[in-house]
TrEMBL record:
This is F-box/kelch-repeat protein SKIP25. Coiled coil: none annotated. SUPFAM superfamilies: F-box domain (SSF81383), Kelch motif (SSF117281). The lineage of its organism: Eukaryota, Viridiplantae, Streptophyta, Embryophyta, Tracheophyta. Residues 1-25 are annotated as: Disordered. It comes from Tagetes erecta (African marigold). PANTHER family: F-BOX/KELCH-REPEAT PROTEIN SKIP25, KELCH-TYPE BETA PROPELLER.
């Protein structure tokens, strides 16, 4: 055998735990630090198929991180949650009436639950309510500095659920608190560029014109000398930037995107009347009107690859388009598909676009780097769940 299989156990998520009391070499005759350098050049799916010790290696900080799909999920099956909650009030919240977080492991092709944030009082996020049959209450999150950041949500008392952002760091597999929000929101416009989060407009406990025009930024600035993001808590703070001229962007949750040094956003989803777009020039600290072609083609979920290529999934036609800033137009790169119609949310990374559609019941992956573009479906984490949003991040270093 190339590597030892002794005293290693497989877990049901496809990862492996290893007994480190016996320091078996990764490659016979070589010290492990050299073996790690050699093995890091091999695709993780190949290493995973060879032996348990190599399978363990790909989930450690010693192996280059591969990208994984993260999902924020609401479970809509509330028929049986009351009894289980009464019997075990101190346990992890029952999946039948909660918001949960999952990571799809592309090596094992399995969903793994992420730990829930530890808050006092316990975090309770509202996504649907009988009083609002035709409307969902979103949980807004984004990826920045390699982390998943929760920005805004509604609590069960219909007040803002988050007094400060909650940050999940895949490097540690832990949640930590961000800097306190000057005005917690139930929803807002949120986006990022590089390692900076931007929050604009929105609604808190009730509508306020001042908040609807307010724009703030938070520099996450992960330090190489910092092992845990929580060590930066004393340095983190929100800073005011140029505000909006009015409160038109407070009507609903808005997904802003960072594109070529600017933050871009529209005030309504889809191709509705009254759609308006604005662009924030980061260097000039100035808001400008969005180019006409950009706003006219912004007809669905939008995402940006490497902060340089902007994609939209047309919610009516189900096609993927790329924005051409020189000609102010959108060019089709993937033909229309029923799988992509009604796109509600998307994430871009690693040459892939991951799209949520079907009322949150379907996740479609589009390989835009392939010619022609390929696509396939990934089943949601739970059979009776609604995917709120998807995000692309590195895999966690610690075993879930």
């Amino acid at each position: 055998m190339i590597c030892s299989l002794k005293k290693s156990t497989d877990t049901n998520d496809g990862q492996t735990t290893v007994n480190h009391h016996e320091d078996h070499p990764l490659l016979p005759g070589l010290p492990n630090h050299l073996a790690q350098t050699i093995l890091s050049t091999i695709h993780p799916s190949l290493l995973s198929a060879v032996c348990r010790r190599w399978r363990h290696l790909i989930y450690t900080p010693h192996f280059p991180p591969f990208l994984s799909l993260y999902a924020i999920v609401a479970n809509n099956n509330s028929n049986n949650n009351s009894n289980s909650n009464n019997n075990n009030n101190n346990s992890r919240p029952n999946l039948s009436n909660s918001i949960n977080f999952f990571m799809f492991n592309p090596i094992s092709a399995k969903w793994n639950p992420l730990p829930l944030p530890t808050t006092d009082p316990p975090l309770r996020l509202l996504h649907r309510h009988p009083s609002f049959i035709s409307r969902t209450l979103t949980v807004q999150a984004l990826t920045v500095a390699g982390c998943l950041v929760l920005i805004a949500a509604t609590g069960h008392d219909f007040l803002p659920a988050l007094s400060r952002p909650l940050v999940y760091d895949p490097l540690t597999g832990e949640w930590c608190d961000g800097p306190p929000l000057s005005n917690p929101r139930r929803w807002c416009a949120a986006g990022c560029f590089r390692d900076v989060v931007y929050v604009a407009s929105g609604v808190g406990a009730h509508y306020r014109g001042e908040v609807a025009r307010m724009v703030e930024k938070w520099d996450v600035k992960r330090s190489r000398q910092c092992n845990k993001l929580s060590e930066l808590k004393d340095e983190w703070r929100w800073e005011a930037v140029a505000g909006l001229k009015d409160g038109r962007f407070s009507r609903e949750a808005v997904e802003a995107v960072g594109y070529k040094g600017k933050i871009c956003m529209v005030n309504v989803k889809g191709n509705l009347a009254g759609k308006e777009g604005v662009v924030y020039d980061i260097e000039k600290n100035k808001w400008e009107k969005m180019p006409r072609g950009m706003v006219e083609g912004w007809n669905g979920a939008v995402g940006v690859a490497e902060e340089d290529v902007m994609y939209v999934v047309d919610e009516e036609k189900g096609c993927v388009k790329k924005y051409d800033d020189e000609n102010d137009c959108w060019q089709e790169v993937v033909q229309g598909s029923d799988l992509l119609k009604g796109a509600e949310n998307m994430a871009v990374g690693g040459g892939k676009i991951c799209v949520v559609s079907g009322g949150g019941g379907r996740i479609t992956v589009v390989d835009v780097a392939a010619e022609p573009g390929r696509m396939w479906v990934v089943d949601p984490p739970l059979p009776e769940s609604e995917v709120i949003s998807v995000h692309i991040l590195r895999r966690p270093c610690t075993r879930l």
